[in-house]
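Q: Hi! First time doing this. I have a protein sequence and I read that you can turn it into a structure. Is that right? Here it is:
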Amino acid sequence: MSQEPNLIEAEKDDSLGRRLGSSGTLLVLFYDHWFAVISLGILLSGILFGLFLPRIWRQTPDGFTPVVKVSGLDLWQARSLRRAANRHLEGGRFNEAVIAWSSAIANNLGDTEVIREALRALVAQPRVSQEHLGFGVGRAFWLLRLGKTNIADLELTLDVLGRYSLDNYVLVVGGPYRDQLSSAGKMRIERAYFDLGKKRDFGEFWDKNAALFEKDPEMMIYRNAWVVTVGNVGNPFAAQEALNSARNDPAHRILANRLQLSVSFARQDLETFADAMRQLEDEHADQLGHHVYQWLLLFSSGRQEEARELARNYSHPPATPSEVSFAAEGFHRIGLADNAIAYLEQHIRRFSFEPELWLLEGTYLMEAKRWTDLRALALAIRNDPSLQSQLDAYSYFAEAIAEGRLDRPEAASNAASRITRSAIPSQSLAREMARTLRTEGFAKIAVDILRPLKESLKDSSEFWFEYTVAAFSANSDEDILPASQRALELLPNDLSAANNHAAALIAFRSRPDEAIKLTLRVVSGRPGDNGSLLNHVLALLQNGREADAEKLLRGMNTLNLGPAGTSVYYLCWFELNTRRKEWAEARASYGRIDPHQLLNVQARWLDETFRAIPRGS
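A: Yes, that's right. Below is the predicted 3D structure, encoded as structure tokens:
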């Protein structure tokens, strides 16, 4: 009897085991301590894995492009590399520190603190290496973008640019904010004004900050050099004496002699220039730009061959992109155009991030008519990642010009059609490209380039004149009349602007009374010019003065009209004949007109009027 309950219980347990099946084992295991720990560890590992590897953490501000997202692994690696960079820096291994910082920044491009740390260390170095130029400048500009050009980051960027003597960038970046800068920042801006020859800006900014600048001995050396260079401010004689004194002061000798070179060059004083140059060479403080000034000064003084010989034999490598461009321009100005191109080709890869070097080489290749080399340059621009597509539009422009001159019209047209798909970095470059494209037979592309500039250059008379000429060349109905009208508004006394707008009014048969006033003024100012006279004849006809128009036509010398002028000449006869209903003569005049030599609107009017001539007449 005592065993029956046990049997019953055993049967119950067995039944329960069968009902649970394999899950029963899991329940037993779940209550096992180590199994629970392992299971929880696997679960947490999965969660951490999901958070650690995917790039889900945004590091850039709202609205910033491109968006930078990182993973937990990226953040961990960036932190580790940053610590390594600081260890290298403390150990005096700056090159290794830069490599570590570069990798840390690459792991987290949105970490402004790492970028600032690296740039501060770069600026603090007793001597900057050209090896770190790309790193320093590139990261400084990226920092400005991330920080939306706050003044602290701007000051740090100016420090980096100043260490590498990139005065042009100093003004581009810091110039718009010059009044908000610290004392050191304002002094850097003022020195850049002098070094880049911006005399007016230097004087104006000095007047605004005289109390600050006059406290600094080096700024006073700049001031004295400026007074001597300008010549009509202050006391140039006293300023030169002060500059001479600074040249003999060990504390300021190098700076004073460098500034003396600028003064001597401006005054074409070869003797003083040579003396200052010798002192700099003795101190091993001469720079490439100083030697270029020497070439130019010798050349302008009549010692051309000596200047060229010095230039050919100069071998010191450039330290900055501005030195490359300045040396190339120096070669070019003393008649060594091939040397200028060779110099750019030699050094452009080292400073490939600088667009101006590529543009300068393109200009020189066009001047030298080296079309195959120009085409190769265009391809090299598009293949250089450091440019970040800044010059893609220019590269297609250069390719179009090269292919056209190599008698490959289809390839030229294909390249030209791609120009407007990319942004053009500056308005001046856009205008220069448009001007060249117009003369090379791509007037429509030229108009497409100029059209977006209308608002920003609404008060530029030169722009509107260029735009008018391009619109006429492209035969663009929508642009001709408004462009020529705005050009005349800005150039009311210019005969060419008056003639262009008169031609537009005549072509569109608009406001004939205004057109005849303009053509009369142009004809009076340009006696003997057949193009202006033909415009006047057309204006006379549209004002119903057929007899006056016929008299001028019969007295015109048509031998030198050319194809376009000849077609316009017979267009005048055609309109005169149709107004008089002289149908046979009108048909004869029509037969001597080439519609392709007319504006589209004129060609349409001609066709419609000819079709309206009574049949059988």
